[in-house]
Specification:
heterodimer; A: about 425 residues; about 0% strand; B: Rossmann fold; ABC transporter ATP-binding protein (chain B)
């Protein structure tokens, strides 16, 4: 065998893994931006604009203070933004054996490249979150100079958090208490951002200085640790797997990702509800449990319900067609979301052994979807009755007609 | 000089598993860490390969201290884990090239040794295979080839015979003996004591995180009032 057979060099290892991951992300993003998702995005964007316009006309001060819900929204939005752009190391389990002797190269080469790339990613994420928040900032009393300073604060804080993540990978002491370390990071980050939104020039200046100091100290700490620190592989691999799992879980919302489709959570709190729903048919019991415990099942339907309700509450009361259109689309998306459960259950040998009558299974499955989408419609209607009143009847009638239409003409054809 | 472990204290999240543990593995010797589950064997190995937080004591290899010279220490080490761990996306040959490169060793001078090992474990001709096509035993053989292909001063093996066929077990014993003859210190854990007495120079019996016995197979048997023929019954 020739030496040329091998193309990966240690100093190129990070770049090679990063490129592979980016290629994979690109592949999944192509699947994400399909027709259905683009329609959903357009509606969500339209809904956000409606919510924004309707909020602009209202007095949003909090309990008659100088603070408004705009500030609160800005704070929450930027805090959520800080969750994005984490350290991407792409470490793998086999590194613990094959790269254990290359610690020097890993700490001073591989991790350095990982940090640089992650900083770039973090910068892109934070900029995107900040730019999206500009319409909110416009409704606060922050000047544009202050807004720019706020952006700097976010960048400093995120840099400090990234440096902290690197430090945790090369210090066995920090690695022992990952949760405590993360909590300290987050507490400091959130207090800093909150201080900034306090709308006081002195507090603002202190927050800016504090964020800079936070980043500086973390950079210094990591540099100091790198002198004698070696990669704590257990922690490094766990962190990389967690990041990979987050990516795959996101992709698995709209595409088949190997090893991700069967992810389940116990969700003990749903036991009472499952017992209450207690179906006589064993197949129905199986399916409802699969949907309730899957990470891409009823939890997503619940989130869709919240988003849908917010959208409907923001719609102009005179636009009846919009209420009907959004309701129909939500029902369709919900059914489409749950449809793959039939095929996935069929792929399990047990399903075939235990339930051999295909016609009964198809009937039971479509009945479950009909029941769930009826509950979905009912929940939307109740929310509208409570908060809006007028359009509840439109939502209820459109919902039930769409349910029947989607169930009989779409679902039943798809599972045959 | 070999491996020196002095007054080692280690554990997890505030729980001390090993306290005041001292032993050595001289160059050219094969030493087996034995003990019941939970005695601290894995924790000890983890510390020796530099994956764990030292709460006290020191570990050094040929004079290189793990805490103050971690990079130099780890360069001298090869490790075979209990379960094979491979990269899904790398071929067998790519794994071996990577291992040599991580140890800073030249492909050209070491590749004939690699080919010899591949042939010994009947992996020749499979250099371009991905791990998905290997059985568990074959994966374990890849780990062995990778570890024996590099020049190391300390070879650490966690349960060496798991998943290996009888022929591969014999070859592994021969390789360990050869490695020791060439001056490498070999530290391993095993539960197969009767088999171990064929190739192990010294046993370290771990009980509750401490060495309760150190010596030859005969001495180990005597210390537990057993005969040398029934080491597998040591704990019964």
């Amino acid at each position: 065998m020739k030496k040329a057979d091998f193309t990966i060099k240690l100093h190129e290892l990070y770049a090679s893994r990063r490129d592979k991951s980016l290629k994979e992300t690109k592949k999944y993003l192509k699947l994400l931006f399909n027709d259905h998702f683009l329609i959903f995005l357009m509606i969500a964007f339209g809904g956000a604009v409606l919510v924004y316009r309707s909020a602009m006309d209202q007095d949003l001060s909090i309990l008659n203070t100088d603070w408004t819900y705009w500030q609160l929204a800005l704070f929450l939005w930027l805090s959520v933004g800080l969750l994005f752009g984490n350290l991407q190391t792409y470490f793998k389990k086999a590194d613990t054996v094959f790269l254990a002797s290359a610690d020097g190269l890993l700490v001073h080469g591989y991790l350095k490249q990982a940090k640089r790339f992650s900083l770039l990613l973090a910068l892109i994420w934070q900029t995107a979150f900040f730019l999206i928040s500009l319409p909110i900032i416009a409704n606060t009393d922050l000047s544009w100079v202050s807004a720019f300073n706020l952006f700097l604060v976010i960048i400093f804080v995120k840099t400090a958090m990234l440096e902290g993540e690197v430090a945790r990978l090369i210090s066995a002491k920090l690695a022992e208490q990952p949760k405590l370390f993360a909590r300290i990071n987050w507490t400091i980050a959130i207090i800093t951002v909150w201080c900034f939104i306090y709308l006081n020039v002195w507090v603002e200046a202190i927050a800016l200085f504090f964020a800079f100091l936070f980043a500086f100290l973390r950079i210094y700490q990591t540099r100091y640790m790198k002198k004698s620190g070696t990669v704590v592989f257990d922690n490094a691999v766990a962190q990389a797997e967690k990041e990979e799992s987050k990516r795959y879980r996101f992709f698995s919302l709209f595409a088949e990702v190997p090893g991700q489709s069967n992810q389940s959570k116990r969700r003990r709190y749903l036991d009472g509800l499952l017992k209450f729903l207690g179906q006589k048919s064993a197949y129905k019991q199986l399916m409802i449990r699969r949907m309730a415990r899957s990470t891409s099942g009823l939890n997503l339907v619940f989130r869709q319900l919240i988003v849908g309700a917010v959208l409907l509450l923001a719609v102009d009361p005179s636009a009846h067609w919009l209420f009907a259109g959004i309701t129909a689309l939500l029902i369709y998306l919900m059914n489409r979301q749950l449809l793959p459960f039939y095929g996935k259950a069929e792929a399990v040998l047990w399903t075939d052994l235990l339930f051999s009558d295909k016609a009964t299974k198809q009937k039971d499955f479509s009945n479950i979807l009909l029941a769930l989408s009826s509950l979905f419609t009912l929940a939307l209607t109740i929310i509208l009755v409570i908060f809006k009143g007028d359009e509840a009847a439109t939502v209820l009638s459109t919902g039930f007609i769409t349910n029947l239409f989607v169930n009989r003409l779409y679902i039943q054809k798809q599972i045959k | 000089m070999g491996l020196q472990v002095n007054n080692l204290k280690a554990g997890y999240a505030g729980h001390v598993v090993i306290d005041d543990l001292s032993f050595s593995v001289p160059n050219g010797q094969i030493v087996a860490l034995v003990g019941l589950n939970g005695a601290g064997k894995s924790t000890t190995l983890k510390q020796v390969i530099g994956q764990g937080r030292l709460l006290g004591g020191s570990i050094s290899l040929d004079g290189r201290d793990l805490t103050s010279q971690p990079f130099e220490y780890k360069q001298l080490l090869a490790y075979i884990p209990e379960q094979p761990i491979l990269y899904d996306e790398l071929t067998l040959a790519e794994h071996l090239h990577l291992m040599l490169e991580a140890h800073g060793q030249d492909d050209k001078t070491h590749w004939s040794r690699v080919e010899e090992l591949l042939s010994m474990f009947r992996l020749n001709g499979k250099e371009h295979w991905l791990p998905i096509h290997f059985s568990k035993g074959m994966k374990q053989k890849v780990m062995l080839v990778a570890a024996f292909a590099v020049d190391s001063q300390l070879l650490v093996i966690d349960e060496p015979f798991l998943g290996l066929d009888v022929l591969a077990q014999k070859q592994l014993i021969a390789l360990m003996k050869e490695k020791a003859q060439n001056g490498t210190a070999v530290l391993l854990t095993t539960h197969l004591l009767d088999q171990a007495k064929q190739y192990v120079d010294s046993f370290l019996l771990l009980e509750e995180g401490r060495v309760s016995f150190a010596g030859s197979a005969e001495e180990l048997a005597q210390s537990k009032n057993k005969t040398n023929d029934s080491l597998d019954d040591l704990f019964s």
